[in-house]
Amino acid sequence: MNPFRHVAQRRAAAAAVEPQPEGVASDAKPLVQGGGIGETLRTVIYAVVIAFGVRTLAYEPFNIPSGSMIPTLLIGDYLFVSKFSYGYSKYTIAFGAPLFGGRLFGAAPQRGDVAVFKLPRDNKTDYIKRIIGLPGDHIQMIQGVLNINGEPVKMKRIDDAIVTNQYGREVRVPQYLETLPGGRVHRILKETTNGPLDNTPIYVVPPNHYFAMGDNRDNSLDSRVPSAVGYVPEENLVGRAEFLFFSLDEGTRFWEVWRWPWEIRFGRLLQAVT
Fold first, then answer.
1. Cα Rg of the chain (Å, integer)
2. Which of 49, 147, 189, 262 ranks highest by number of CB atoms within 10 Å?
3. How far apart are CA 118 and CA 51, in angstroms?
4. Residues with a known catalytic role
5. Which helix (H) or strand (E) holds 175?
6. Whose CA is closest to 73, among 111, 130, 34, 132?
7. Is the N-terminal amide bond of 152 cis, ω within 30° of 0?
8. Which residues contact 271 (CB under 8 A, 6 or more apart)?
9. What does pTM read for this prediction?
10. For 207-223, what is each residue's pLDDT tens digit?
């Protein structure tokens, strides 16, 4: 029998149970760390609350599915809309939660703003158009020219726009710079002066309402059609379009990531909406 072996074993056992002196940290680490399912649930809840707050109070992403705002916005554009620009209503709340009526911290849109609003006909569908008429304005189209309060706006012909028509072919379309009262300048497309919406009655914008039009004037269903859109109530405003964060060629779906290298419109990324 080896006495030294028994002594070594007793010393090792004593060391294993000897308490750490006060104030000295132990090097021992637990075999399992983390809060398990509870910690995961808390993380998910925090993420949802943050996303809800950002989407409600700051910015919400939208994509453009139609050509009514060409040349300003193209099919396949993805943009951020600022919720705080016009204040908050039940239509700016994420998921449309009817928490209150009217608007909080309301601010009036400026003429020429590109705005997202809920379609007055159903208060659900998101529309994006340019704010043309303010409360009290008299709006009329005369031979394809926009008239505001009895005065035609200035239009200057510029280079034709190249757009894809309904048959998938690229065509040239007359393009103009339109100057609104107050000096805002933007591009529009105008092919004819005698279309169904080129000669209209005078629209008198009611209080707390706005008159919205698409920049693709011959291919836009907007406030010129009272039965479809009509005047936009202030409460229905969702926010102001600010800038593009992504853009894909028409026909490319967002989830088709393998096509992105060839289909992303890199020249439109981070472009301001004006």
1. 30
2. 189
3. 21
4. 68, 129
5. strand 170-179
6. 130
7. no
8. 243, 244
9. 0.79
10. 999 999 999 999 999 99
The domain limits of the chain are 57-268
Domain 57-268: give its CATH code: 2.10.109.10
Helix, coil or strand: residue 153: coil
How many CA within 13 A on the CB side of residue 18?
Answer: 8
Region of residue 204 (phi > 0: left; psi between -120 and 50: alpha; otherwise: beta): beta
Check pLDDT > 50 for residue 62: yes
State both tokens at 207: 């209080």
The DSSP-derived string for 215-261 is SBGGG--STT-TTTT-SEEGGGEEEEEEEEEEEB-TT--TT-GGGHH
Q: What are phi and psi of 172, to 5 degrees?
A: -95, 135
Q: Is-contact 84 75, C-beta < 8 A?
A: no
pLDDT top residue among 237 and 15: 237
pLDDT for residue 68 is more than 80: yes
d(Cα 93, Cα 221) in Å, to the nearest integer?
A: 26
For residue range 257-273, list pLDDT tens digits in order. 999 999 999 999 999 99
